[in-house]
Amino acid sequence: MYDYVIVGAGSAGCVLADRLTADPGTKVLILEAGPPDDAPEIHIPAGVAALFKSQYDWDYTTTPQPNAAGRTVYWPRGRTLGGSSSTNAMIYIRGHRHDFDTWRDEYGCKGWGYADLLPYFMRAEDQQRGASDYHGTDGPLRVEDLRFKHPLVRAWIDSATDFGLAANDDFNGAEQDGVGFYQVTQRRGRRWSTADGYLSRAAERPNLTVATDALVTRVVIEDGRATGVAYVRGGTEQRAVARREVILSGGAVNSPQLLMLSGVGPADHLRSLGIDVVVDLPGVGTGLQDHPMVPVMWHTPDKKALWEGVNLRSLMLYQTLGRGPYASNVAEGGGFVRTRPDLPAPDLQYHVLPTPYVDQGLTDANKRAMSVFATTVAVAGRGSVRLRSADPRWKPLIDPNYLGDDADLEVLLAGVRQAREIAATGPLARIVGGEYAPGEDGADLAEWVRRQVVTLYHPTSTCAMGGADDSVCDPELRVRGVDGLRVVDASVMPAVPRGNTNAPTIAVAERAADLIAGGPLLPPTEFA
């Protein structure tokens, strides 16, 4: 028996486990479906692609996408301690203040505006550059400048500023617009996940139990209250009782899946699979958003790509000093752009990789080339997560509805066109040796985008919070219609933020920990 049972030891779950067990009188169980995070490739930044389709990956695939040439798209999601913070590209981006103010003003999420969340971003952070009005230094999450910066990425940044984009050395400060190198969640060149920053210290406390290889099959709901969970570990079904709350932190795929398996979700869908309806909550699994992107590539015949630096000599440098190509997060730089001057915030993000990106990174690089991801970050389209079966071992149906709204396509087209202009400017114009993709054959650009669009790995909004009664969670992240049950992860975001989603997921969990514990909330930031 525990006070809290947390399902999922990912980016949010690790934060909750640490913050809730800071009270020695609070007993917590955290259940993780995947194995421990003890593989070397997890902790070496440049090894990110080696984690694809491994035991540390849920290895999901979308349904065929009618507006993306009927293709299915591979979706990697972290399945280990630290979740996707143990398998991502480590980019530390919070989002734009407009995102969070929109959560508050348009979705009725009182207490989730930018001024409310900034103190939690800062509480989480251990910023290498030091404390400031926007950054903290006392948190568990280490944020550093890259210890390896490839010349091709530097050339792209210089060309982008020559083209006219603003230079920005802090996308998490006063302004998000502009281009530069990204900061990363690393410590001295090593990945620094939430398992490293939060869970490792919490695991030393006697009031926390961590169970890996534990697949939760349902939330036990009795008389309208969540009283625990059923899970399978070592081939045996077990139960854990929660005296206070069950907290779902499985992410935008697993949390709605588990709610529906437990009888909480769209009634007709549940009945069609023979699941008894506990609460008819149509919003569960709906509203899915993700950042769609396309990789634009150029040949760089006279410049070595990142993959050419991955060798024994570089490995020895990394193991001794934490530097060199192995310390690269691969997507080293980029930036944020408004494709129209009337926009309240950027709608386009770039990621720049000093290597080709083929078949979603599943094909080993073997050419000298660089990639620029053009990404829609003000996403208009919505998709869904639905059950394929009442068997919890079956992967769910994931439909991100890529390019279902033409506005998302238009941003990608603008991004490809601008990326081409940048490549023809400044130092890049002297480096690139022709366009690798889309290519220079004059093919229809919109059709190419539809054939190439893939995920940037940022699913959100499938258990969205809101002030309206039809939202899945209220603004305190409590599931409507079930007492003692909350969701704390990216699925509660009412809309996907502009930028990489790991940092805002951690901030959501930081604030949720205070809500759950019933303690005082951090006061909102007062801006001059």
TrEMBL record:
Residue ranges annotated for the Glucose-methanol-choline oxidoreductase N-terminal domain, each copy included: 251-265
The entry's keywords: FAD, Flavoprotein
Coiled-coil annotated spans: none
Domain of life: Bacteria
InterPro entries: FAD/NAD-bd_sf, GMC_OxRdtase, GMC_OxRdtase_N, GMC_OxRtase_C
Cofactor field: FAD
Family listed: Belongs to the GMC oxidoreductase family.
Name by which UniProt lists this protein: GMC family oxidoreductase N-terminal domain-containing protein
